[in-house]
Amino acid sequence: MNRFFVPRLTCIVVTAAWLLLVGLPSNPARSADDAPLPPGVKAVWDLAKAHRQATPTRERVSINGLWRWQPAGKSDELPSGGWGYFKVPGCWPGISDYMQHDCQTLYVHPSWQGVKPGEVRAAWYQREITIPREWADRRITLWVEYLNSSATVFVDGKKAGEIRFPAGEVELTSFCTPGGNHVLSLLVVAKPLHEVMLSFSDTNAARRAGGRVDRRGLCGDVYLVATPPGPRLGDVRVTTSVRKGEITVSAALEHLAPDARYTLRAAVGDGGRKVREFASAAFRAADLREGRFTLTEKWKPEKLWDLHTPGHVYEATVSLADEKGNVLDAGLPERFGFREFWIDGRDFYLNGTRIFLSALPLDNAQVSALAASYAGAKESLLRLKQIGINFVYTHNYGCEPGTHLSFEESLRAAAAVGMLVALSQPHFAQYDWQM
């Protein structure tokens, strides 16, 4: 998938110096029983100041920041008090080794001061949210970008749905009112892929070991999202081919009427200037393959993304229209670079030029929320470029819950500095072998 990531709130260390970033709203349902914050510090969340992205048909609002937090007991009943604070996104503290380090402050409530954070396997999150008034007649969802490893979502104490590792959304439309304030609560459980797994830490022989989740909690960005209630776009991907001189847009499409006809449109921009526009022939829901429709156009721009030209990027705006040409849904801009990497025999090529890869692992998404942020990842990658590294691979030798935090910001940083990235496949132990 050839895509970049638009700017957003990134993980940063929460310090007493500036908790005014994003936390509870200015009129929170905060009680005197909540854990105290440092003197003179207020955690403020303001809808008007939150990171927002919008098109004529959809919008998303970041609700990252300082949330109420507390370890969960044996009951799944929503707590009425005893709240501390912890920042989203970020993994719960208390598990540290040569690879993983704590970087975010957990504000502890006296009632659970004796609890060891590293032993917490379930916790409650809570914050008050404001639904924009202009979201009337839209489908409203909660989107969790990366989760280790399951969450039950409540709005004003009512269960709205569940999200499972690695990411997902829950529809909130029937639980909230545009223009209204609501209390959003999540019961997050750090559940391993299997209770018992094979461990290959001893190279002589595998042994059975208890499953565990080292990086627990909401480990990626969290958004409130508004989309059209009817036919709409889902995930959008942009793929480019230098050899073929082609650009391909693939979009997941949802809630299409069986007998209606639609067209998919794409507009490519460069710094606000439209440089290419194309559209598909009319199609029906039956023409989708695995829920997606693909549109390919001949195009090869002069500006190619490369290791020495990372600033050569474009934005693709994809929209879904009915047979009369009315736009039903316009997606958020997708940043991409026109590029292609391929292998011919034992040689590697990038945009038609033979390339020698000098590689090192990238540990940022395993180390901490700070290292996995855009700023943290960008600093690491720039340092690696200075010593001649042009290719990194994510250092998670596994893909089960807890092996890493979100890669979104690391990938965005790699695109910005000009670094090739490879992602690890699941470890041998994570396949269900029957022999």
Please provide a written account of the structure.
This protein is mainly β and 435 residues long. It is 6% helix and 36% strand. The chain contains 3 helices and 29 strands. The chain has a 6-stranded antiparallel β-sheet, with no helix packed on it. A 5-stranded antiparallel β-sheet has the order 1-2-15-6-10, with no helix packed on it. Strand 21 and strand 22 (327-330) form a beta hairpin. Helix 2 (374-386) crosses helix 3 (408-417).
Q: Topology, please?
A:
Elements: E1 52-54, E2 59-62, E3 65-71, E4 84-88, E5 122-130, E6 139-144, E7 147-148, E8 150-155, E9 158-164, E10 168-171, E11 181-189, E12 196-199, E13 207-210, E14 217-218, E15 222-227, E16 232-241, E17 246-254, E18 262-270, E19 273-279, E20 292-298, E21 314-322, E22 327-330, E23 334-336, E24 341-344, E25 347-350, E26 353-355, E27 359-362, H1 364-367, H2 374-386, E28 391-394, H3 408-417, E29 420-422
Parallel strand pairs: 27-28, 28-29
Antiparallel strand pairs: 1-2, 2-15, 3-4, 3-5, 5-11, 6-10, 6-15, 7-14, 8-9, 8-11, 12-13, 16-17, 17-20, 18-19, 18-21, 21-22, 21-23, 24-25, 25-26
Helix pairs in contact: 2-3
